[in-house]
Specification:
59 residues, 20% helix, 0% strand
Length: 59
């Protein structure tokens, strides 16, 4: 059985006009601004080529 408080709350919500209720909405985050992509240099400032090193720690 529902408490008197809950019954009263339901009745008040039914009596309020629909335009007085706040509509539910979801805020969608804005996409990030477009960035200016610069190509990465293939050689760093010391003259060495850039690359990838894979390290296997399984022994």
């Amino acid at each position: 059985m529902l408490d008197a408080f809950i019954i009263d709350r339901i009745q008040r919500e039914r009596e309020t006009p629909s335009h007085a209720r706040v509509p539910l909405h979801i805020e969608v985050p804005l996409p990030p601004p477009p960035s200016v992509e610069r190509p990465l240099p293939s050689v760093d400032e010391h003259g060495a080529e850039r690359g990838v090193v894979e390290v296997d720690f399984t022994i």
